[in-house]
Structures are given as C-alpha cells and as structure tokens.
C-alpha cells in the first residue's frame, strides 16, 4: 500500500469517527453503538458497514418509520436479508430497536369502535364495540380473504400518536372505527388497511402531528383512500388547534422535508396551509398535547 493510499484511508477513518461522534451527540440513544464502532477491534470494512447501519437507523427514526426487521434491512441496504445475524445481534445489544420502530414480532393493526370481523365462512362476527373492548390489536396477515367484515363502520379516524389513540378509543361516537396510524407504517399495515377498505369502504379523518413528517404520514395513509376512490381529510392538525399551546422549533430534518413538500404536486389544501404555516412560524407540535 502506498503512502498516499494509507493517508487517504486514515483521513476517511478520522472523518467517519467525527461524523459518528456528532451522530451520538445529536441522538444519545446511539451512544453505545457509536462507542462500539469506534473502539471494538474490527476490520475497517465491518466498522464502515456498522457506521452505515447507524446512519440508516437515525434516518429511520427521524422519519418516524415503523416496521419489521426486514423493512429496516430493505430501507438500509436494499434487500430484506442484507443485514447479517451478527449485525442484528450487535444492533440489538447496543440500540433500542423496538423503541425505534424496528420490530421483531408479528405486525399488528390496532382498532377500536364500530366494526365487527369474523371468518369468511362464518355468519357470526367478533364485535369490537367501544364499551366491551376499548381497543384491539390483530395480526395484519389476518386481513385477507379468510376474514370478512360483518359490521362496517360509517367512518374511519386514524390517529398517529399512540397515547391519543388510546384516549380517543374510550369516547368514540357510534359508527366510527378508530385506527392507530403507526408513524411511517409498514407494508403489512398498509396492505391490511387496503384490504379493509375493499370490504368496508368509508371516508376517513386523519390526525397526525402537525409537523413536516406528519404531513408526509397523512399523505401516505390518505393515498390508501385515494386509491380506493374514497374521500379523506385531515383533522386536528390546523394551526388554530395547537399554535397557542406548547410548540417546538423546527430542526434541519424538518426543513429538508418542507423543501420537498414545497415542490410536491397535488398537496391537499389543508396540508398546504399547514406546510406554509410551519415555514413561516418555524414551529411544530405534538398532537398528544390536545388530542
């Protein structure tokens, strides 16, 4: 190896170390993993690969995505099996994967309110009424031909914040089905809701955090209703609802998302108004404070 090549590798290693340290400072939950990358005795290629995984995990968390390990592997490396078992063991020992929305177990869809489901060969539905169940989590894979909707709702309400979902589940009006919208939903969740709309079509209200990511999440969920030709609208996201309460400053990621939203065609009027308010005020909020 020439002196020039050695110097180039050294420079890249130092730069990567500085980037990882900055990442840990901005996201303390990555500190243990960053310390491991910088200090464990590993080949440089393994260190680089693990550093890239941490960058991908930071982006995953920043975008509020939710999914299985396969979903994260696909997002990080373009293939569902691209992360090795050794790398998963390392991630599990140094980062809070479940808290960050990278699940290992069966993906569920959480519902409450006026809906009844039953096996497709049965005439008896398993009712999920407000008074008896509160809210219920069912495997996404069950929403397919083997199931049918015995009692359809008149409207859906999707709420992003889990605490708000549980709170509203106790006070739903008759005919409304409440769904928990888990941030950036997994493909399994999207397929389950897509199936649900083929069996029980109804308009939807979508409530997400009034921030740039919340606009994107609302669009992702709303696209399911658009594809089915069913109307939807946002709810409890307008600035009049939250601007006089506790707010937070926008960060660099928020501003990057807003730049993308400015050039997005077909943004619904209510979300365009919210986008413009976020731009001018440089503030955002979390819906748990009022919903």
Structural summary, described in words:
With 291 residues, the chain is α/β, with parallel strands linked by helices. It has two domains: 101 residues, no CATH class; 182 residues, Dna Topoisomerase Vi A Subunit, Chain: A, domain 2, CATH 3.40.1360. It is built from twelve helices and 13 strands. Strands 6-3-9-8-10-11 form a six-stranded mixed beta sheet. Strands 5-4-7 form a three-stranded antiparallel beta sheet, with no helix packed on it. It has a two-stranded parallel ribbon with strand order 1-2. It is globular and about 60 Å long. The N terminus is likely disordered.
List the helices and strands and how they pair.
Elements: H1 3-26, H2 31-39, H3 44-62, E1 67-68, H4 69-77, H5 85-94, E2 102-103, E3 108-113, E4 116-119, E5 126-127, H6 130-133, E6 136-139, E7 147-151, E8 155-159, H7 162-168, E9 176-180, H8 187-199, E10 204-207, H9 212-228, E11 232-234, H10 239-242, E12 248-249, H11 252-262, H12 269-281, E13 283-284
Keywords:
291 residues, alpha/beta, three-stranded antiparallel β-sheet, Dna Topoisomerase Vi A Subunit, Chain: A, domain 2
Give the structure's gist in a few sentences.
The chain is an alpha/beta fold and 291 residues long. 48% of the residues lie in helices and 16% in strands. The protein is built from twelve helices and 13 strands.
Please indicate the percent range of residues in DSSP E strands (runs of 2 or more).
15-25%
Low-confidence regions: 3-15, 125-131
In the CATH scheme, the class of the largest domain would be Alpha Beta
Please give the largest β-sheet. 6 strands, mixed
Distance between the termini: 62 Å
How many domains, as an integer? 2
Architecture of the largest domain, according to CATH? 3-Layer(aba) Sandwich
CATH structural fold name of the largest domain: Dna Topoisomerase Vi A Subunit, Chain: A, domain 2
Number of strands: 13
The radius of gyration over CA amounts to: 22 Å
Structural class: alpha/beta
For the biggest β-sheet, the strand order reads: 6-3-9-8-10-11
Order of helices and strands: HHHEHHEEEEHEEEHEHEHEHEHHE
Average pLDDT: 86
Helix fraction?
40-55%
């Amino acid at each position: 190896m020439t002196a020039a090549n050695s110097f180039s590798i050294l420079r890249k290693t130092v730069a990567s170390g500085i980037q990882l340290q900055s990442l840990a400072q901005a996201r303390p939950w990555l500190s243990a993993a960053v310390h491991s990358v910088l200090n464990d005795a590993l080949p440089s290629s393994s260190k680089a690969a693990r550093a890239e995984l941490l960058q991908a995990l930071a982006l995953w968390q920043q975008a509020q995505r939710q999914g299985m390990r396969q979903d994260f592997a696909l997002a990080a490396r373009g293939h569902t099996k691209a992360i090795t078992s050794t790398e998963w063991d390392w991630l599990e020992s140094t980062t809070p994967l479940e808290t960050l929305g990278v699940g290992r177990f069966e993906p569920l869809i959480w519902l409450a309110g006026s809906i009844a489901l039953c096996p497709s060969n049965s005439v008896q539905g398993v009712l999920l009424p407000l008074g008896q169940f509160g809210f219920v989590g069912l495997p996404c894979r069950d929403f397919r031909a083997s199931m049918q909707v015995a009692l359809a709702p008149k409207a859906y309400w999707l709420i992003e914040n889990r605490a708000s979902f549980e709170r509203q589940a106790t006070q739903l009006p008759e005919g409304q089905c409440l769904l928990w919208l888990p941030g950036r939903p997994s493909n399994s969740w999207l397929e389950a809701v897509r199936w649900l709309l083929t069996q029980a079509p109804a308009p939807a209200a979508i409530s997400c955090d009034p921030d740039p990511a919340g606009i994107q999440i609302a669009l992702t969920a709303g696209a399911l209703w658009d594809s089915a030709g069913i109307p939807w609208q946002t709810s409890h996201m307008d600035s009049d609802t939250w601007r006089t309460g506790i707010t937070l400053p926008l960060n660099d990621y928020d501003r990057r998302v807003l730049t993308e939203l400015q050039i997005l065609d077909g943004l619904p009027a209510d979300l365009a108004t919210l986008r413009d308010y976020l731009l001018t005020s440089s503030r955002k909020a979390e819906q748990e404070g009022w919903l």
